[in-house]
Amino acid sequence: MRPEIHVSGDDVEMVTQLKNYLTKRLKYLLDMPGTIGIGVSGGSMPPIFTKALFACDADLLNWRRIRIFMVDERYVDKDDEQSNLGTYLKLFPPELAYVFVPIPICNDLSLTARLYEDNLRRILLPEQSGTSPRFDLLFLGCGPDGHTASLFPGDRAEHVTEYGWVGVVQDSPKPPKTRITLSFASLKFAKHSAFIITGAPKAHVVRAIWDRDNTLPASMARPYNDRLTLFVDEAAAKSLPSRDSSEESDSRSPQPFD
Ligand SMILES: O=C(O)[C@H](O)[C@@H](O)[C@H](O)[C@H](O)COP(=O)(O)O
């Protein structure tokens, strides 16, 4: 099944598209029991995701049920300006800091990854019995090199945790060099994933995702259930097949919700 594609003309339109997607997913998830786990990325995503989330109707923002976690994090304290979690905490009202799954940065990188995995299991999936995570929503970015989260070409992530949900990277081509990241296995078990991608330098990555070209991590991270949505601006969409081309499939039809 092809990913669902939303092409936006500007940030305002993309925020509206994201808000509509979040609304649809939150309405469905709130009808289900359990914690709602939403994974987010860093880079340029924090402001646009935050705007879209707070544009949702207040009755959907059930903070007793919603927990937000980082799909990757730089190995820095949350007060460091490079911290993804720190960036979100600055954008959220301080009284909502508790909705973020903490990343216990300590002086041992592997221990940090193991502690984070423990938090993901304990806070997000208390009902989780198996070893594979079932995150409800993932919001992923990508780099022009095709990385997503902190999974870079060249298989640089080392698995150091009990369940392999979180890996460590010590030679990230994107600074800073040292990071923790969800693993491909974690990303691929998501119930729904969405990429937020803008800019012409990433158009070839968008096409690789569309084509299932698994030479790039961003394409390899597609969920097993194929429930994938792409939010792209016109520049990032420029390599996609045109709407009326033979390469087009029925991807624009609405996907069944789980
Ligand atoms: O910690 C990070 O750097 C991000 O999680 C990373 O995976 C990001 O999503 C991509 O590098 C895209 O970043 P931009 O959106 O800023 O291009």
From TrEMBL:
Q: Give the protein's recorded name.
A: 6-phosphogluconolactonase
Keyword field contains Zinc: no
Q: Which residues form the Glucosamine/galactosamine-6-phosphate isomerase domain?
A: 11-228
- One protein family per Pfam: Glucosamine_iso
Give the similarity note.
Belongs to the glucosamine/galactosamine-6-phosphate isomerase family. 6-phosphogluconolactonase subfamily.
Q: Which top EC class applies here?
A: hydrolase
Enzyme Commission number(s): 3.1.1.31
Q: Which pathway is recorded for this entry?
A: Carbohydrate degradation; pentose phosphate pathway; D-ribulose 5-phosphate from D-glucose 6-phosphate (oxidative stage): step 2/3
| KW Kinase (keyword) present | no
Q: Which residues form a coiled coil?
A: none
Query: Which GO molecular function terms does the record list?
Result: 6-phosphogluconolactonase activity
Against InterPro entries, the record matches this protein to: 6-phosphogluconolactonase_DevB, 6PGL, Glc/Gal-6P_isomerase, NagB/RpiA_transferase-like
Please give the catalytic activity noted in the UniProt record: 6-phospho-D-glucono-1,5-lactone + H2O = 6-phospho-D-gluconate + H(+)
Q: Where is this region: Disordered?
A: 238-258
Q: Which keywords are on file for this protein?
A: Hydrolase
- Function, please? Hydrolysis of 6-phosphogluconolactone to 6-phosphogluconate.
Q: Name one GO biological process term.
A: carbohydrate metabolic process
